[in-house]
Amino acid sequence: MYSIKVEGDNVAKAYSNNLRISVKNAKPVCKSVRGLGLPVAKQFLEDVLKAKRNIGGRYYPKTTKEVLNIILSAEKNAEFKNLDIKNMYILHIASLEGTHMHRRRHKRNIGSRIKAAHLEVILKERTGKKAVVSKTKTEAKIKEGIKSDLKTQITKEIETKMKTQIAETKTPVEKKIEIKKETKPEVEEKKTESKIPIKKEIKVEEKIEVKKVEIKELKKDSEVKPETKK
Questions:
Q1: For a disulfide at 91, which of 50, 51, 124, 184, Cβ 3.0-4.6 Å?
Q2: What's the Cα-to-Cα distance from 214 to each of 61, 191, 200, 207, 227, rounded to whole Å?
Q3: pLDDT per residue over 133-159, tens digit each?
């Protein structure tokens, strides 16, 4: 039944037939979990289902759910054998092509092919120094993944802040231009108001001076006439 023969008291297995998933999508999911510790692999798949982490830029929700279910079933088999689950790791996990099935025929058209795949998992318990070394390696992998996720989040936050700062710097310049445009007509109105009364005052003074000159000439003429009669 299994593609690899592994036997021993420290081994737990699980197998599932004809799951409605694609073999093409199941292979990268199995590859991402192979060789990891059991608790680390479970946490990784749960994060992928919650869209916190990804597998090559994708999430594969249907296949990750099936892979997680088969790993949990292998964990139950390990508990039944009284094995230490914390020291268990995924020795082997693979996806194989299932049976070829088609949907029912419609008139002359043959029904489309149904996706089917087999999954198999083999867990093994670590013992001695290897158990300690594997823990440190898995922890380092988790830290690297968390750091990469944090870097992407920080870069996105910086980009958003830069965009907001650029938008804020543009708005006050536009406001200053509008204020300058509004102040110009007020100055022109003041200039026109100041020019009009000055012209009126000058005209009035000229008229008054002309009248005074005419009155003086008339007085002189009146004085000169009686002298000529004598």
A1: 124
A2: 112, 37, 22, 11, 22
A3: 555 666 676 677 777 777 788 888 888
